[in-house]
Fold this sequence. Notes:
By secondary structure, this protein is of the alpha/beta class. It has 11 helices and 11 strands. It has 3 domains: 4-84, Arc Repressor Mutant, subunit A (Orthogonal Bundle), CATH 1.10.10; 90-162 and 264-297, Periplasmic binding protein-like II (D-Maltodextrin-Binding Protein, domain 2, 3-Layer(aba) Sandwich), CATH 3.40.190.10; 163-262, D-Maltodextrin-Binding Protein, domain 2 (3-Layer(aba) Sandwich).
Amino acid sequence: MLNAQWLETFVTLCEEGHFTRAAARLNMTQPGVSQQLKKLEDQIGQPLITRDGKGFTLTPAGEAVRDHGRRRCEEERRLREAFDGDDAGKGPVSLACSGSLAMLIYPRVLDLMQQSEGLNVKLEAAPQASVLEGVLSGLYDIGIADHKPTHPRLDGDLIGSDELCLLVPIGEPSAPGYADLERLGFIAHPDGFAYADELLSANFADAYPGLERLRIRSFINQIGQIPEPVARGIGYTILPRSGVNTYPRREALACVKLAHPVHHELWLVRRRGKVLAARTRHLMAAVIETVGELAQLS
């Protein structure tokens, strides 16, 4: 690899066309310029200039080295601009998480984009496996998982937890028994069966017969609409606190206080060793703050 300092001196000499002017521009002595030129020629193994009185002309090798030096200078200039341009309010950044968390986080994302016109945020609701695979492949800059990542190329920070809420209509008993829930019927959704098995077995162990015998009143796969039947008195459901908090008619829902509450950990996941851009760190800070507010609602 060519010596960077000697190459810079040579490019400057080519641009100035004169040893004295090149020395003045580089804050060097004229013999210093000549010495670095000689070292570069020794490294190349052939002369780079042909002297012509007080001037000089470039040899073919000199022209090639000059062009190479100019390209390197341009690359370094663009690199410095990239460093200087690492602005928290500019550029694309992507995040993946569960649907309920996406609904909770998106208003904060909109706030960030309103404050920074150059910020472009992609927020995608995805299953847990897709979140981890996407961060690993580089599809997403960061993700939120419900468990600590075990892959050796992923890092994660525990940033909070999301409580599972047993939601019943307003007016139902504040401490319903399993018979009360069966009377209402379960409002099922794609994650609801796993939530039900986890929460009901922990709190109604003697009465809960298992998923196979769960009375299903309705099924819906639109995360924002899952609480609606409960608000209308049609049934009960189980959702993370993040999904409850984004429902516009929260006052029509009652979250039952349980003897054995269930919380899912929330881990902010990123590629191990990846240097994060300022915009990604900015989004991470907003996500951590938003998730932290869930604890205040539990």
